[in-house]
Amino acid sequence: GSVQKNHPTVGRIPGGGVVKKEIPLAMPEEELSLILSRPDFTTAGRMSEIINEDFSQSLAKAVDPNTVKVEIPQEYQKEGLLISFISRIENLSLVPDRIARVVINERTGTVVVGEDVKILPTAVAHGGLFITISQTPIISQPPAFSEKGETVVTEKTEIEVSEEEGRMVLLQGTTVQELVNALNALGVTPRDLIAIFQALKEAEALQAELVIM
Description:
The protein is an alpha+beta fold. It is built from 4 helices and 10 strands, in the order βαββαββββββααβ. It has 2 domains: about 30-90; about 100-140 and about 155-210, no CATH class.
């Protein structure tokens, strides 16, 4: 008998395709379903809040991380007004929730760090590298007897980089960006950088997804 590989009905068109028959479009009558391309609980919640805030009534509800249901108000259910309702929703601005992620290009040594990616307190030994990253709280108080003003506490980050044989790298609640800056100051190779991040990930100290390209 003959030998057949792969699925006979699967194919790829490099230049795209042509739709020969129009797909019928059924317009919603009482409710819209908005589907997120990247399901996320936080993003779905933000979307419903923004819609409700813009229309000043409770129309939207996040039913799961993938779907937001929007009730169509009576005044927009009239002929010709549904399009303007959908258009108004489309033009609302939304900041989607970002996944904590660190992306490293092994070939170029490029490191892309998401915002507020944290490293939990841990100790890492790698060759002769010695890095200390410490944070000191700074308290700023208003002048005495002042009617306005409040006490503000900020964090001052100090980074000390050196090369000492047999020492440990002590990291305490620092950000990935601070760690990368310290390692770059030493001229650490991309391979060493990847090894350090992999060790942090294995120890569950890196609070982010690690992607190595």
